[in-house]
Structure formats: structure tokens, C-alpha cells
Amino acid sequence: MTLQFKSYINGEWLGGNGVADENPSDLATPVGEYALADVAQTQAAIDAANGARAAWGMSNPQQRFDALDFVGSEILARKEELGRLLALEEGKTLGESIGEAARAGQIFKFFAAEALRIPGEKLASTRPGVDIELTREPVGTVGIIAPWNFPLAIPAWKIAPALAYGNTVVFKPAETVPACAWAIAEIISRAGLPAGAFNLVIGAGRVVGQMLAEHPGIDALSFTGSVPTGNRVLQTATRRGAKVQLEMGGKNPLVVLADADLDQAVECAVNGAYFSTGQRCTASSRLIVEKSVYDEFVARTIKRLSGLKIGNPLEAGVHIGPVASSAQLDTDLSYIRIGREEGAELLFGGDMVECATKGHFLAPTLFAAKPDHRVSREEIFGPVAAVMPADDYEHALALANDTEFGLCAGICTTSLKYASHFKRHAQVGMVMVNLPTAGVDAHVPFGGRKGSSYGPREQGRYAVEFYTTVKTAYTLP
Q: Are 133 and 121 in contact (CB under 8 A)?
């Protein structure tokens, strides 16, 4: 029996035209099919969210805690099941997928607790006898547009704070991962929220996403995705005065200095660049290596890549699963072709890998490239990285900062001097020392600078800045 993934609007599951949900590891066996929402259903979801604003926005903190704690607890209890679904639909290895499911559960439980400690202040006035109170209130109705690469964790770190601070939600997932979105929504549907407080609308970006950006009933919009789409969302939503938060990717450098532990540096590079099939906005797609250890680092990296197993993410021993979709595979292959045409040296990979089933299996790919090559400058979002030499630390830092992005940067070194300098001078929102660039804890702020991010940070206690508005109240008793 074919699994059906429907939209959830105003407390009801609604159908529509069925579209196949592709399994990137086995194209002959879809995960199921999803119901494609239209304009009318999107409008109904926005109306429902606005209709529930008073009930949920004025709910007490204990009610919000109970609902979000219920969601987090069930996700954690079912992390293996949800992880398997994620692996089938998106292609992460089973271990990574279960880990992501656990992270989603932890995020809901973190924000359950945050609902009990929404901050406020009491200040003294310059006028005798007057009290001043600063309180935080919900923004209102929040539109959430999430990507396909972390289909459980990213929706969690948007939905959970939105609900914790009393907002109502209209959630649009990527069409590539409707099953994961449905799984989250199904759990939320049993958490005791009033009808309309949370809505799932599975549909095309040009329909659902565009409506969320344009509609006056959406007070705030949180988006994670590509730079071109993010810029369109920003222009459309801010034109009508909506609050906007964007996460749009990166071209993240990992600097390897001559004094680094090379075995550790190789592990940081391979993990950051290729695990999760390189489909992470925090991936280490630019490897910048001091000249004196460049050749040895490259040789060790190639040896490490040659030992990786590519295949079905549900199989034991697989390190890298498939590219998530045919569209993304086309992008990856086009950049591999561009790298060759521009003169970058293909050091490893670049070809499709044959497995037991037909899927989007691409070998991890490493180019020796120049800083001006497109594979060194543009986000590819696949298992493709560029390595380049640097004369010394100062040159490596300059190369690391020579990008329009500013999400994350890493450095491998045993020097406290260089590590400290890099943490201060890397033009990014997040810095990793002797760690992969990909991997941020659930309770800390996530976000970048320059072209990577716009608006307040996501995750952790910093999420309150986006999902609430501050009210100043004066009282003369």
C-alpha cells in the first residue's frame, strides 16, 4: 500500500494531487506519494493560523511546555524509526539520520523549557513613582520555509521556538522531503495545540512559498535555502514590512597550517566536506593548506577518500549515501564539468558509482583549484571540494575571507596564537578549531555574516530575538 503524506491545515489532514516521493537510493521504489497543496489550501492555512493567534498567543507557559515536551519526547522515543525514514527519503546514512532525529527531539525539549522562562525586565523610571516593564510578546503568524538537507532538525529549530513564544505557524517543507515533514506534523497534531496553531502545507515554492512571502497575514518569515530564492523572499516580504530571517548557505574554508596534526586535519576535512554527501551549508568546500604540508595533506586525503564506501544509507559500513535528488545531482555534475573546463585538476572522484540499486550515487570529488575557479567560489552543495595552497598563515586567512559568504570557518593548528587570531579575524558567524566545520550543538546560536545570513540568529536562547517583539509599558500606580 502506497504511503500518503498530506498537508495538515486547521486540525485536518487534506489531500490533493498525488506526486511520487523519490527514494534517491532506489529510484524504482518511491518512499510514497505526497498531496500537492494549491493556492486555496495555502490561504486556508494562513487563515487558520491567524484564527488561532489569540488562543495560542495567550496560552500559559505550562501549556506550551507540555505540548513541546510531548513532541520532543516522542521524537526521541522514535528516533530509529524517524531516522530510517530520513535515510530513505533524503539519503543520509542511517547513523547520521538517527542522530538528526535525536537532535530534533532535543531542540523541541530545549524550547519547551524556554517557554517557561521567557525573559522580561523591570526598570526604574526617571519620573518618581512610575514603573517600567519590558515584556516579550509573540510576533504573530510565522511562515516557515525549510530546505531538504536537514528535514527533521531545521524544521525543529524553526517550529519549536515559534510555538514556544506563542506564535502560530504555517510550515512549508521542501518538496524533496515531504515524508519527514509529515512525520513531524503528525506528532505535533497530537500535542494538544488548538486547531490552526500549527499548519503543514506541502507544495511548490512558486505557489506556497510565494504566498507566504507576499501575504499580509504572515507577520514573520523564516527561510533556509538558496541565495537566489532567499533574496527574492527578502525583497518580497520586507517590501510589505514583514520580519525576515534568512539562512542561505556558505562556501566554508578549512585552513590547515604546517603545525597541524595532519591525521586530525584530514579527518576534519573529509568529515566536513563529504559526510552527509556534502549537502550541508556548513560543509568544508574550500581546503586551504599551508604549502609545506600541502602535498602530504593531499596524499593522505586521497587515501582516506579511497577507503570510503558509497552506497545505500541503510547498509552497515556505508560512509556516504546518494545525492538527495536528480536536480541536485545535475548541479553537482555540472560543477565537476565546469571545474575540468576551467583547468582545475581533478585529484579524486568525479564519477557516478554503481550500486546494487539505481540511485544518485556520486563519488566524493576533490579538485586542486585556484581561488578564482568557480568550484572554489560558488556553493555546490554536494560531495565536491577544492584544495589550494597558502604561503603562510596570513595568506591562508586572506584566502579564507575572500568569499561573499560568511557562515562557518575552521582551522587545524596546534598554535594557540594562530587559533586565537583566526577566531577573531575569520569573517564568519561560527568558527571551529581542530573540528569539522559542520556540526553545531542544538542549544547554541546558528548563523553567519555577509551573504550567508540575514536577521537574528537561529537556535538557542538567541531565537527569542526573531520570534518575539518587545513591549515597553509604563504604570503610575
A: yes
